[in-house]
Amino acid sequence: MGASHVEILARQGATVVFGDVDVDAGRDAEDRLRDNGLDVRFQRLDVASSQDWTDVVHVVREAGGLHVLINNAGVVDTRGAEDTGEGDWARVIDVNQKGVYLALRTLVPVIRDSGGGSIVNVSSVYGLVGAVGYIAYTASKGAVTLMTKSAAATYGPDGIRVNSIHPGAIQTPMLEHELAGLPAGARDGFLEATPLRRFGDPAEVSACVLFLASDESSFVTGAELVVDGGLIAAR
Ligand SMILES: NC(=O)c1ccc[n+]([C@@H]2O[C@H](COP(=O)([O-])OP(=O)(O)OC[C@H]3O[C@@H](n4cnc5c(N)ncnc54)[C@H](O)[C@@H]3O)[C@@H](O)[C@H]2O)c1
């Protein structure tokens, strides 16, 4: 989904700096988008590393400032507490939760210096409702939901809006990885539980990210935007 978000923002004319631990995939995306005339820059980034975020600060300051921050990187784990080791727990919390904290800590000052802007944190429907299993994932995504509201309250006076996005089942490599960790029939189960009876396309989430990033949502902050084909409305 991150590549799709990068593309939609760059197509609006933004200079987009994006990061990932997967350097090959990042460079491939950078080449493809630049070939399409878009102004994008890939930077290796482990969102759980404070040193990596410090490096990002230099890159975005060189790029002329920062008005939009999308915290999208994430990992999923479908297991419940009894099957989740402490190392697995720490990995999910480090990437999904600590990653957002480090992003705020290092980049809010740059956004403030740039005159304000918009932050979009990618949570999940599992940051709003529980699920069978998913103990570390729901812990991390529930945290992102409330960290978003605290950040909205804290940085609103600086002209910085902060909102969260809550995707349901979106067709990406993560969804395939997730389904592989669930019992047979989970795919059909998700589809039956989704009123629109299909998985979402990454571009459908990117359109919502663009709305929250743009001035079209200028009086929206601390809000939860659910993009799930009705999945949790029907629960
Ligand atoms: N796909 C879904 O159905 C779904 C549903 C709800 C929420 N989400 C959330 O949407 C976001 C994007 O998910 P996706 O489906 O595109 O997943 P994905 O697994 O397809 O992509 C996630 C990306 O994050 C990168 N990443 C992992 N750990 C990282 C780290 N420490 N630092 C930097 N990058 C790292 C991976 O290399 C990968 O490129 C995640 O936060 C995920 O939790 C996805």
TrEMBL record:
Organism of provenance: Mycolicibacterium obuense
The protein's name in its UniProt record: Cyclopentanol dehydrogenase
Keyword terms of this UniProt record: Oxidoreductase
Lineage of source species: Bacteria, Bacillati, Actinomycetota, Actinomycetes, Mycobacteriales
Family: Belongs to the short-chain dehydrogenases/reductases (SDR) family.
PANTHER family referenced in this protein's UniProt entry, alphabetically: DEHYDROGENASES, SHORT CHAIN, ESTRADIOL 17-BETA-DEHYDROGENASE 8-RELATED
InterPro entries xref list: NAD(P)-bd_dom_sf (IPR036291), Sc_DH/Rdtase_CS (IPR020904), SDR_fam (IPR002347)
Keyword Protein biosynthesis recorded: no
Pfam families cross-referenced by the UniProt entry: adh_short_C2 (PF13561)
SUPFAM superfamilies (UniProt xref): NAD(P)-binding Rossmann-fold domains
Molecular functions (GO terms): oxidoreductase activity
